[in-house]
Amino acid sequence: MNKFGKIFVACAAMAAMAAPALAKEVTVYGSARLATFYEHVDAFQGAGNDTDLRFRNQGNARFGFRASDGPLGGQFEAGIGTGNITLRLLYGTYKFDAGTLLVGQAETPYNYLLPSVVMDDRGGFGFGVPYSSRRAQIRYTLGSGLYVAGMDPVGINPVGEANNVYMPQLVVGFANKVDGFDYNVGVTGIWYEQADFDVFAGMAYLISNIDLGAAKVTFTAHGGQNAGAFLLDRAVAAPRFEADNRRNVYNAGASLNVAVAGANIGGAYAYDKPEGLSSDRDKWMAFANYPVRIAKGFVIVPEVAYYNVAPAAALHAGGRDNYFAGAKWQIDF
Question: pLDDT band for position 308 (50/70/90)?
Answer without folding.
Answer: confident
